[in-house]
Automatic annotation (TrEMBL):
Metal-binding among keywords: yes
Cofactor(s) the record lists: a divalent metal cation
Protein name: Transposase family protein
Native source species: Streptomyces marokkonensis
Residues of the Transposase Helix-turn-helix domain: 58-107
UniProt KW keywords: Metal-binding
DDE Tnp4 domain mapped to chain residues: 137-296
Keyword Metal-binding: yes
Superkingdom assignment: Bacteria
Amino acid sequence: MADRSVLTHPLFTGISTAHLSSLVGELARPWVVGLEGRRFQARGGARKRAPGAGARHQLVFVDRLVATLIHLRHDLPHAVLGVLFGVDRSTVTRAVGEVRRLLAERGFAVPDRPGLRLRTLEDVFAYAQAEGVELRLDATEVQVRRPVAGRGGRRAFVSGKKKQNTMKATVVADHRGRTLWTDALRPGRMHDVTAARTAGIGPCFDHFDLVQVLLDDGYLGLSRDHRGKALSPPRKLRPGAIAPFVELRERQRHDHSSRRITVEHALADHKRWKQLMRWTHRRDRLPDTYRAIAGLVSDRTATV
């Protein structure tokens, strides 16, 4: 068994010790409430012994949280984490599943607004309109395992751009590259515009008139449908255009790219966590994993 105080080092967990302490204070009670709810369902009724009676947990909540963070950061197998914490692999598997769900449900931190968290795309647009924030939106893909042969929908995960089996996440960031929101992941074959529309961005543009979102060339359909709100770079001129107009158009595209690049920095922060470099586990667990990691990244960047 490894020294558990060493395992809380930021090199293992990916977050500072102060951030870890705040997570323990925030998530300990929801974990206990959820645990009691699961036990109530398993028993089929109220408990017969007083709270605190019975066998003790082999992993206290702090150790469960640390094990989950190490798993997200370095993608260590559950069996290896079991050796580090001196428990069985199944105990780690259960702990990671419980804590990962809690991390995914936290939402995203708001800069300079401690205690306020964004959980839906409507929350992000409401915050942007109230604070005058110009949003940046982009999509990223995570490589996943190929579905088993013979199952329906096998081609849905084949990305036309990556030429791999992927799942796609739509991410919103602000002008400083701070993550504000990410959606439930979609199959990689889905177009970026379709993924954004499926997430409900159209009604948000209609309801929040003052919000502007910077996009890349992959979202020309959105910029056509929501002029003045969804801002894509100017189209390139055709060959043979007059040189001064070409130079002006290139400067405009460069300025747009320079303002939009911060969302790429946010995506790079997410991909520093090893599990998002390439996902090798069950695909239905990737959405919770991505939201959990993005929420942790947003906690750090919101205080910068």
